Amino acid sequence: MEIKDFEKQISSNDLKSVYFLYGDEQFLIETKVKAIKKKLVDPSFADFNYALYNGKDNDITDVLTNATAFPVMADKKLIILKNTGFLSNQKSREFKELREFLTDAPDYLCLLIVEDGFDKKKETTIRFIEEKGGIVRYDFMPQAQVEKWLEKLFEKNEKIIYPKELTAMVKRCGGSLMNIYQEFLKLMSYMGERTKVTAEDIENVVLKSLDVAIFDLVDHIIENRPAKAMEAYKELLEHKNEPISIISAISSKLSDLLAAKILSSEGVPVSEMGKYLECLPQDWLIKKTVTQSKKFGEKYLRRMVKKCLDYDLKVKTGLMDKEIALQLLIADLVK
Q1: Which residues sit opposite 89 in a β-bridge?
Q2: C-alpha span between 235 and 231 (Å, rounded)
Q3: Which of 5, 112, 209, 244 is 20 to 30 A from 99, comparing alpha carbons?
């Protein structure tokens, strides 16, 4: 189902029996879930007409028993399954029972199934949902759309931001609407009554996303600036990023560089590379990854990816302190 069709059904109050929502842009998913709850659930009767099942410790029998109970003083009943994993394995009991139930789901039911890390390759296994509703995937938006969305946020709050600063803020946040919105709130608090957003405001307040900070670290390594690389490392720690998360992010970044290098050698156009890379699929991030990949040898990248995995394993098995592992990894990268 196209996002525009889903949004039309929400606005026209023509919601179907079941929707499966997933994808990278969790901010948009949460926004739509809140909009549906506001539209369908009267707080006075929420105990009868609304239920949230969050996590993998829920029982499918309890869910289906609740789903078959009629709503009270309302036309619709809203049930949300968030990260339950019921549809992750088509051989599981939960998958089979939920599928059987949804073939004849009652019209009074609106079941929202939300999965944060659902593999889009598995979408074919849940096509049966479309018979009673829809599958909606929220990918990261293109940079131009993100900038337009952010500009409207500033306008609503009677702030002025020029295109250069707008682009800088989006790039600093990595393109994720969740990151951008959180940094936007911080910026609003920082600015107070001032109306014009400056480059200094963004530099002082807006925190770089982990992905963007890793890009900067790799830039320093490419340009053989070990001192700057160590400064970038310290900045990552100062912003309370866990060393093991940084190691994982560096591993993903190096894997992307290796993939981009191989794909480029095979003649794959830059416009097609987003589907193969782990980095946020923003055009500028993909282009930068391709440019950076040309400055590394394939053997070096393979060796460094292996080192990331080795350090990650040593930390997780208690053979090495996490901060020491990160320091050694960065030293290996610089060498």
Answers
A1: none
A2: 6
A3: 5
Residues 45 and 67: their CA atoms lie apart, in Å, by 15
For residue 217, which amino acid is it?
L
- What phi and psi values does residue 196 have, to the nearest 5 degrees? -95, 125
Please give the radius of gyration of the chain, using alpha carbons only, rounded to the nearest integer.
23
Dist CA 119 CA 133 (whole Å): 20
Indicate if the pLDDT at residue 311 is higher than 80. Answer: yes
Tokens 């879930």 belong to: 33
- Give Cα 318 distance to the centre of its chain: 29
In tens, the pLDDT along 271-307 reads 888 777 765 556 777 888 888 888 889 998 999 999 9
CA distance 253 to 51: 39
**Encoded tokens for 273:** 């590379």
**Is residue 252 a contact partner of residue 278, using CB atoms and an 8 Å limit?**
yes
Sheet containing strand 18-22, edge to edge, reads 50-54, 77-82, 109-115, 18-22, 133-137
Closest C-alpha among 102, 106, 111 to residue 33: 111
Q: Tokens representing 131?
A: 């018979």
Nearest Cα residue to 239 out of 231, 229, 227: 231
* CA distance linking residue 32 with residue 40, whole number of Å: 12
Helix (H) or strand (E) holding 157: none
pTM of the model as a whole? 0.78
The DSSP bridge pattern shows strands 50-54 and 133-137 to be unpaired
Question: What are the DSSP calls for 263-311, one per residue?
Answer: HHHTT--GGGGGGT-SS---HHHHHHHHHHHTTS-HHHHHHHHHHHHHH
Over residues 66-115, the pLDDT tens digits come to: 999 999 999 999 999 999 999 988 899 999 999 999 999 999 999 999 99
Token pair recorded at residue 325: 């592992």
For the stretch 161-213, pLDDT in tens is: 999 999 999 989 887 899 999 999 999 999 999 999 999 999 999 988 888 88
